[in-house]
Design brief:
Structural class: mainly alpha
Order of helices and strands: HHEEHHEHEHE
Number of domains: 1
Strand content: 5-15%
Strand order of the largest sheet: 3-4-5
Distance between the termini: 25 Å
Helix content: 40-55%
Low-confidence stretches: none
């Protein structure tokens, strides 16, 4: 369902996370941020009613129906992490809707692909799919203190 709604962007995130995600102790390697159910495993079935409930939440407004389950699940993930584990955010880094709550839980452990700066959703999805196909993990930088807004890089070269 997420792949259908988000197209290339979600497909890129999912493929990349499945390829390069590493589980830590009792914590699964891949989680999907939802608007009202916190973090879910990618294989979770979502009903039409749940999808309609997702659509009711305004992420940009800092709605507690989004933040509360996200923080709850992020704390659970943090509790199960190995000491040296990083948490890679493949979602939007340009706004605080994901970054702000996740930074409060993960701090310096929260990292993102440096190449995301200045790119839109579709470009990030394309980068993730290309990286997955090439079996080349991207370089990460800590979210805290990073430049998250930048000049738009050149468009990706078209691929067949």
């Amino acid at each position: 369902m997420f792949s259908f709604l988000s197209g290339l962007y979600f497909r890129g995130k999912h493929a990349y996370a499945q390829r390069f995600g590493r589980a830590s102790s009792s914590v699964a390697a891949v989680h999907i941020i939802t608007t009202s159910r916190g973090l879910l495993p990618p294989h979770t079935r979502v009903t039409r009613v749940e999808l309609e409930q997702f659509a009711e939440i305004d992420l940009s407004a800092g709605d507690a129906r989004f933040r509360t389950p996200l923080l709850r699940d992020a704390e659970r993930v943090r509790a199960g992490l190995d000491d040296a584990a990083e948490v890679v955010l493949l979602g939007s880094i340009a706004t605080g809707k994901y970054v702000d709550p996740l930074l409060t839980v993960f701090g310096a452990r929260l990292v993102f692909p440096e190449t995301f700066v200045g790119r839109g959703d579709m470009s990030r999805g394309g980068i993730l799919l290309r990286s997955t196909r090439a079996e080349r993990e991207l370089a990460y930088v800590p979210v805290s203190g990073a430049v998250r807004h930048g000049r738009r890089p050149p468009k990706l070269a078209r691929q067949r």
